[in-house]
Write a structure and sequence with these properties.
The chain contains 5 helices and 17 strands. By secondary structure, the chain is an alpha+beta fold. It has one domain (about 5-295): Carbon-nitrogen hydrolase (Nitrilase/N-carbamoyl-D-aminoacid amidohydrolase, 4-Layer Sandwich), CATH 3.60.110. α1 (about 20-35) packs parallel to α2 and α3 packs parallel to α4.
């Protein structure tokens, strides 16, 4: 890790088509674009190589997965080395026959793999049938030293859980990255859409505030039917709501993308401002770590057991 007090992050908000190879090539070009805009660490959306296939349970879709290291990490590593940037890529990992993960790979600016994070919290909701595809992560919450600085990455559904953000921040991560694929059910958008997006942004801004870290969230955009090589889900699909953003260490949104178009956000991480925030709002100092044992319980009944 360098001693830099500032570095720049790039968030690639993109749409995804039915051809995985085309999506990978597009992502690689967006990494180059973000690098030209001055980004040192560039994050791609969750599972960007395909349209969001978890809208259905289809055993044939396991063929989309690949090992790590593998073809995608080789190509992305070459781009990271070419552009001299750190790249965070969310991939469908084939770990062993019948064993698959939703995995974020951190690629250093020399192309090597600096670390892996396997998504810990796996949802199972209408059109988000991830438990069918992904085994929960077994690497724990992790932070990684990179040429730009110490960072942590979680994935999508993890963003609703303060425990993951806290543990990653306690390992010294200065930025929490959340590659994401989240959107509206079209029938719900008019009634609940604004509240759903507001809740999503609010919970992540709260992670920034509670931990005194930057939070960078990158979503995809566009309406998708899980179309992979011409095989799609019937019905209205999902409208991915974009709205990628970067929040500073007191939760202020310092860069935000639109809801309806592709965009590259670039924002500065200032570790001096982060230090100043923590000195004035010393939440980590005042934690009662002696009193938090019950947090590991699934639920506490009336007498605290």
């Amino acid at each position: 890790m360098t001693g830099n007090s500032t570095f720049r992050v790039g968030l690639v908000q993109m749409s995804c088509g039915p051809d995985p190879d085309a999506n990978l090539e597009k992502a690689m070009e967006r990494v180059r674009d973000a690098a030209r805009l001055g980004a040192d660490v560039i994050c791609l959306p969750e599972l960007f190589q395909a349209q969001y296939f978890c809208q259905r349970e289809d055993i044939a879709l396991f063929d989309l997965a690949e090992p790590i290291p593998g073809p995608a990490t080789e190509k992305l590593g070459a781009v990271a080395r070419e552009a001299k940037v750190v790249v965070i890529a969310s991939l469908f990992e084939r770990r062993a026959p019948g064993l698959y993960h939703n995995t974020a790979v951190v690629l250093e600016n020399d192309g090597r793999i600096a670390g892996l994070y396997r998504k810990m919290h796996i949802p199972d909701d209408p059109l988000y049938y991830e438990k069918f595809y992904f085994t929960p992560g077994d690497l724990g919450f992790r932070a990684f030293d990179t040429s730009a600085g110490r960072i942590g990455t979680l994935v999508c559904w993890d963003q609703w859980y303060p425990e993951g953000a806290r543990i990653t921040a306690l390992q010294g991560a200065n930025v929490l990255f959340y590659p994401t694929a989240i959107g509206w059910h079209p029938r719900e958008k008019d009634e609940f859409g604004a509240a759903q997006y507001d809740a999503w942004q609010t919970i992540q801004r709260a992670h920034a505030i509670a931990n005194g870290v930057y939070v960078a969230t990158v979503n995809r955009v566009g309406v998708e039917h899980g179309d992979v090589r011409g095989n799609r889900v019937e019905g209205p699909g999902l409208e991915f709501w974009g709205g990628s953003f970067l929040a500073d260490s007191f939760g202020r949104v310092i860069a935000k993308a639109a809801h309806d178009r592709e965009e590259i956000l670039v924002g500065e991480i200032d570790l001096r401002k982060m230090e100043d925030t923590r000195r004035n709002w010393p939440f980590l100092r005042d934690r009662r770590i002696d009193a938090y044992g019950p947090i590991v319980s699934r639920f506490l009944d009336g007498d605290g057991e």
